[in-house]
Amino acid sequence: xxxxxxxxxxxxxxxxxxxxxxxxxxxxxxxxxxxxxxxxxxxxxxxxxxxxxxxxxxxxxxxxxxxxxxxxxxxxxxxxxxxxxxxxxxxxxxxxxxxxxxxxxxxxxxxxxxxxxxxxxxxxxxxxxxxxxxxxxxxxxxxxxxxxxxxxxxxxxxxxxxxxxxxxxxxxxxxxxxxxxxxxxxxxxxxxxxxxxxxxxxxxxxxxxxxxxxxxxxxxxxxxxxxxxxxxxxxxxxxxxxxxxxxxxxxxxxxxxxxxxxxxxxxxxxxxx
Length: 273
Ligand code: 8IG
What we know:
By secondary structure, the chain is α/β, with parallel strands linked by helices. It is 31% helix and 23% strand.
């Protein structure tokens, strides 16, 4: 299936504006306020934050594609929050490891910005490096290390990433759960998990959580002027931190087990934004 973002001459921001236009038409909501990308373990939050106004298949929106990953959803949902704000749940995340390029990875974030969104919530399932994080522990992202060697920004555009993960939003999250820990997220390209040696490298570099998403999206969000809240679910201890090998099945199971609890947490955070 062809995607307009794959044409190198296309302007990704123009396609994002077209996508936002389609979302506005199909949902009947002209402007959205908050967008959420729900990673492994977080999907149930979409059912808890408010009333779904409209569900749009990703294939109907320019630049979006159906997810290749089992357990990931491929719809965009418009949700009316109790506060009267409108949220967009972007359920068609493209991962960098899928090999379709960075433009596709950040298209959801750019579409959200074009739809009027000011607050971007990025969530993921990830591996934890702190042994105190039992599988199923939610962690606030305080900063990231982009280890993909890629950037969503094209050309000589030197975007500042200081305080990329807004202190204001992290403080709000902690008013919901004061026990929320925070850490530095390191995005690897994947799709393989790390070797134990790579996890030790990540730790030495200052990372606490390792994953395969979020950093590139957060950079694009900042470029578009959005305030970013990042949350990881530590579904597993990263390779070599515990003795047991990693299995995608066990990671999904840990996510499923934690899902009701962390989705309720996220819904309570969203209610305070
Ligand atoms: I869930 O341990 C999940 N996603 N890179 N490493 C990386 N990504 C992950 C991991 C992990 N667990």
